[in-house]
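Translate sequence into structure tokens.
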Amino acid sequence: MGVLHDYFRAPDAATALRAMEVLGGPLAPDGNGRPGFDGVGTKGIDPDVVLGELVALIRDVPWTTDVIGDELVWPSPDEVPRNAEEARALPPDAPWATGPWLFELDESARDTLAELDDDRYSEIAVAWGGPRNSPTSVPSTPNTWSSSSPS
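Result follows.
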């Protein structure tokens, strides 16, 4: 069990929201066998910790949970449970209980990944793929969207 993350590009929030209605998600093939959106599907590579660690490594900055800024698009930010009691009271099929969730990731994260020099790929891959004792062990165009759902 884990959380699946689809990272994909969409020109705006309305288009990204429509991607949530596609059977199989935003990366599902269309009628011509091509993915509906340019992107990649992952398991366990969440934007705040694991992808954030990668971006922090590339930038050569300490990792924090806000290295990658994101904004909740769906479910409505107005419907976020305010406390644990409200979260427990959600119906079993509530989007907050089941997913998927849609976040817009900040453009600087996209730019950091796109601008990685070819000669640093191996160095970054080894550091990012190495042992993670804790998150603090990390050394110092269109919008990008992330949708998450439990697997």
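Note: Helices lie at 13-19, 50-59, 84-88, 95-98, 107-114, 121-129.
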